[in-house]
Automatic annotation (TrEMBL):
The keyword Nuclease does not apply. It is found in: Membrane. Keywords: Membrane, Signal, Transmembrane, Transmembrane helix, Transport. This is Major facilitator superfamily (MFS) profile domain-containing protein. GO terms for cellular component: membrane. It is a multi-pass membrane protein. Residues 96-544 form the Major facilitator superfamily (MFS) profile domain. GO terms for molecular function: transmembrane transporter activity. InterPro entries: MFS (IPR011701), MFS_dom (IPR020846), MFS_trans_sf (IPR036259). Residues 1-22 form the signal peptide. Gene3D superfamilies: MFS general substrate transporter like domains. Its main location: membrane.
Amino acid sequence: MPSSSTLYPFAVLFLIAPLSHTMPDNEKSTVPFDAEKELPGPLADAIRNGSVDKSILQHAGDADEALKAFMSHPGEVIELDEATNKRLLRRIDLHLMPVMCIVYGLNYLDKTTLSYASVMGLKKDTNLQGLDYQWLSSMFYFGYIFWEYPTNRLLQRLPLGKYSAANIILWGTTLCTFAAVKDFGGGVAVRFFLGVTEAAVTPGFALLTSQWYTKKEQGSRTSIWFSFNGFAQIFGGLVAYGIAKGTRLHGSAIEPWKIIFLVTGCLTICVGFIFLYVIPDSQLNARFLSKEDRVLAIERVRCNQQGIGNKHFKMYQLKEALLDPLTWAFFFYALVADIPNGGISNFFSQLITSFGYTAEESLLYGTPGGAIEVIALLLCGYLGDKFGNRLLISTSGLWISTLGMLLIVCLPLDNNIGRLFGYYLTQASPTPFVALLSLISTNVAGWTKKTTVAALYLIGYCAGNIIGPQTFRPKDAPRYIPAEIVIIVCWMLCIADIVFIYWYCKRQNRKRAEIRASPAYVKLENQEWLDLTDRENPEFVYTL
């Protein structure tokens, strides 16, 4: 009988194989599409004179799920006044944001629990030597990168809320098992599968945000749930400090580093079940909305030109994603920006001890960095949406972080306070990463294309986080000067990349405006719900 390891690749292929109710390409070719004959009046004329691209009509055959809601209201005019829109937004915020914020905070806390454990006896008890800890840190991202593209396909194909909840519960369970780890090999296995289970969270939350919020709302909402990384850093540091001090003073039946894995893992499992109950798959099955409000909740995101979901894999959208310069600009940013992130997030406790503080003090003194991250993310998210310029405003976090790293590099070793303050400033660095994550929700249309770009963005994130810990070599302690120089160079490259993305999006908007201004241009009815990509839809406007 074949082993489970032999069958696993086939099971994965079965799960992620693109499923579609449309005919295969070879069958489609036997029935040529002739839009001029099939469409009457003005649309046929528009196709003849080139104002409507035939490809739009061909791709419109497999439209968005939003059309299901409107089909049940034939002939009705769906109107959404400002008061109703505000009421719906408050209701959506109330039901979605608290759970998403808590889960995303746990997402950060659970993968950085290793950093707390590293100064609480983990290294000694599991006999980690040489570069073992660096590889244990990176192994999470090997699991993440392995499963990132398949999980994005599943996020599109399966019910979004339920699939996300299943992953949250599984990652909490996986984290609990780390308390049973006895050696490096066991730690590698658990960290790898922790990466697999957490791979769905960030892209899933990006999809939920694009599904429920308008373009003008997405930047601030993404910043809010992402900012709970900072709250988690504060909470995690205080919990780890309390456990370390309590067990030192009063003793414990099990080692303190095991307690922190069990506490955070069990908390994640509980929140996962709450997520399963509260978060719907889309507006179509939202229990907290009436039937009428479900339709209005879809209508309010019409302006996004993206719809609320399409379950079918579309090869042309995959090809477009791989050929789009924006895709690779996003990927480059995630790769380069997360080299610093991978180093700092896994070594911040050890970095703080290198400033002259004890292991216990490092757990406590790391917490204000979380507050800096929260303030930077919320402020940049708010200002970005208010002034309609997420990209350039977000770079302020990188400039502040670069100043902080220069303080760490340039100040003498005996200047503990100055170097610690520099570390706090580096915690503003995620602002552009979050801005670009929100722009994947806003600026990438077509659900196959969106999930593909999100997967590549997070694959870049994983690769950067794998590289990052390797720059903090034991021989460079306590100053880690080479790693700190790498961090500064990476942040400068990131700023240049953001400037390119800004220029490219602005250029594309000018081209779209010229197309729409043409007297021959015709907009199709319900074009917003046809699951068109951003590049093929002339109505699409890129957010800056």
